[in-house]
Specification:
The protein has 230 residues and is mainly α. It has eight helices and two strands, in the order H-H-H-H-H-H-E-E-H-H. 48% of the residues lie in helices and 3% in strands. It has a two-stranded antiparallel sheet with strand order 1-2. Helix 2 (52-74) crosses helix 3 (88-102), helix 4 (106-120) packs parallel to helix 8 and helix 7 (178-192) crosses helix 8.
């Protein structure tokens, strides 16, 4: 499980790109793009071409269209960036970055699942699973705390902490990401209120949005079933 750029489907601050911030020659054509939708990703994956430049152009055009749709709805005005001003290298770099934040990788999928479990499981809401209290009570060493500088020295072989279907040989709170959790539950709350971040249907949303609400919905239903049985 590795850390990666946190995805946000609601505020999109992570989806603003400038090919090279030090390259002032690109201004005022500073390049602003948004993450691709499930519909766009499916189209790009099915697009059969040996020409990488052609594929890069499609990615940039799809992203640009999504960004300007939102800008128009918000009433803001901005000059449309001119893709033709990009060099082939700049085009490749930008298309790669857009595609990278649009696709859910295995590490992000696992991180979303784990973060939802950590936030909803009673076991991890007690003070003994608070990093501050854990350190204060001296439990961090017993749990192979990865935040400790002497982690490799204090490592205990026999530790097995079970979270959902995952087994950890160190404290899983190391992977808790409050920013990611805010985005995850923000997606779910928006859907509960009948709001979709993007115009259209479910396939016009990002992979992150779709997966996040599915994970939270399952956890909420499991929690309801658990409380009903008690």
């Amino acid at each position: 499980m590795t850390s990666k750029l946190t995805l946000s489907t609601l505020y999109r601050k992570e989806y603003l790109y400038n090919v090279d911030p030090s390259d002032t020659s690109l201004r005022p054509f500073q390049l602003l793009f948004r993450a691709l939708s499930i519909r766009d990703l499916d189209y790009i994956r099915s697009f059969n071409t040996p020409n990488q430049n052609e594929l890069n152009l499609i990615i940039l055009q799809k992203s640009l269209l999504r960004f300007f749709n939102v800008i128009t709805e918000s009433g803001q005005t901005i000059n449309e960036p001119d893709i033709s001003l990009l060099t082939p290298q700049q085009s490749t770099t930008l298309a790669h970055e857009i595609y990278k934040v649009s696709v859910l990788t295995e590490d992000i999928v696992e991180k979303i699942k784990l973060n939802v479990i950590l936030s909803m499981n009673k076991k991890f809401s007690t003070d003994t699973w608070s990093c501050e209290m854990c350190k204060h009570k001296g439990i961090d060493q017993q749990r192979n705390c990865k935040f400790r500088e002497d982690y490799e020295e204090i490592f205990v072989e026999d530790i097995d902490i079970v979270v959902g279907e995952e087994h950890f040989d160190h404290c899983p709170m190391y992977y808790k990401d409050n920013k990611l959790l805010s985005d995850i539950f923000g997606c779910y709350n928006a859907l509960e209120k009948g709001v979709l971040p993007e115009a259209g249907g479910t396939v016009d949303q990002t992979e992150f949005f779709s997966f996040a609400i599915d994970v939270v919905r399952k956890s909420v239903n499991d929690k309801y079933d658990e409380n009903t049985k008690e």
